Amino acid sequence: MAISHFYPPRRTLMGPGPSDVNPQVLAALAKPTIGHLDPLFINLMEETKALLQYAFQTQNEFTIAVSAPGSAGMETCFVNLVEPGDKVIVCINGVFGSRMKENVIRCGGEAIVVEQEWGRAVDPDAVETALKANPDAKFLAFVHAETSTGARSDAKALCALAQQYNCLSIVDAVTSLGGIELRVDDWGIDAIYSGSQKCLSCVPGISPVSLSAKAVAKIKARKTPVQSWFLDQTLVMGYWSGEGKRSYHHTAPVNSIYALHESLLLLQQETLEASWQRHQTQHEALKAGLLDLGLEFVVPKDERLPQLNTVRIPQGVDDATVRQYLLNEYNLEIGAGLGAFAGNAWRIGLMGYAAKSENVLLCLAALKKALS
Ligand SMILES: *Cc1c(COP(=O)(O)O)cnc(C)c1O
């Protein structure tokens, strides 16, 4: 086998992530690597924390970037917070809710599942019923933006319920951060994780995480050590903490942090509100065009994510053939259906840098060709 250098084509990424990376972010990635305990890098970590606090709309001191993808952010929240025997109410309305349940079980916790039909938002009434029936529950866990279906749940209402029933909230914001309204402090979110490669339009492999003072207190009061050494945040705190000397825990992905810092700075310069609005505006344009093509949305109008548009594949149209055609002819990637939607839905992402008019026009024109 002759192995040669790899030159990826320039694709337009309109799937469920990774999304298109801003060239400025790619340029940041190519800057010279410095030591991870270099004072200049420590300063960059501090700035990254501040930028993450802005993105999450939080004053939480514990706001960091886990050195691994969104799934590791998910695992970070569960392995640190959930102790053996803890009861967790887990909302499942797609693939990522099921993974939360899997995490709870592996932590030795007891998962009380609130199931919701795929393609729908989590039902706050069903959650309240579960909270009433389980007064000893310690956590409420749900996915804000369910990327497997394109459904948006009411994080504000769900977190208010968690507080009312004395539970800490654990929120998956992998696809929501930067794309739709999200206010960690105002909504009283206790533990939240995200990903770098969805609406932040950074390279994959980093997971922003923020924990409230209540969540940090719960971790500090653990009776048993966190079973994962790498994800044990009592150890990681010494690495990301600003006070005094940094202690070596692991080596941060230095260049990826340059990229994250750049993408967060671009978001701050645009402002969150403008970014949320841009996603909504581009979604409206895409929606109009998709409806013109005769495609139907899976998620009811009020529960749709602007950054992830799930449409039914029309009768007689072959899923893989169309996606191959888009990739080969237009260098355009859209997402296949996942789980229950495999083979019968497409997921069209408008995430971060990819949420722009050129992409909407390209996608609509290419899909029109493909369908004819
Ligand atoms: C993408 C995604 C994840 C997982 O993130 P990875 O970076 O792929 O590990 C988790 N939850 C949701 C809602 C996602 O969209």
Structure keywords:
single chain; 372 residues; alpha/beta; Aspartate Aminotransferase, domain 1; Aspartate Aminotransferase, domain 2; four-stranded mixed β-sheet; 13 helices; 13 strands; 41% helix; globular; binds pyridoxal-5'-phosphate
What does it look like?
The chain has 372 residues and is of the alpha/beta class. It contains 13 helices and 13 strands. A seven-stranded mixed beta sheet has the order 2-10-9-8-5-3-4, with helices on both faces. A four-stranded mixed beta sheet has the order 1-12-13-11. The chain has a two-stranded antiparallel sheet with strand order 6-7. A hairpin with an 8-residue loop joins strand 12 (332-336) and strand 13. Helix 2 packs across helix 10, helix 5 packs parallel to helix 6 (155-164) and helix 12 (319-330) packs across helix 13 (357-371). The chain starts with 11 loop residues before the first strand and ends with a helix. It binds pyridoxal-5'-phosphate. One of its GO terms (biological process) is glycine biosynthetic process, by transamination of glyoxylate. The modification N6-(pyridoxal phosphate)lysine is found at residue 198.
Using DSSP, what is the number of strands?
13
**Poorly predicted ranges (pLDDT <50, ≥5 residues)?**
none
What's the CATH architecture name of the largest domain?
A: 3-Layer(aba) Sandwich
In the CATH hierarchy, the third-tier topology of the largest domain is known as Aspartate Aminotransferase, domain 2
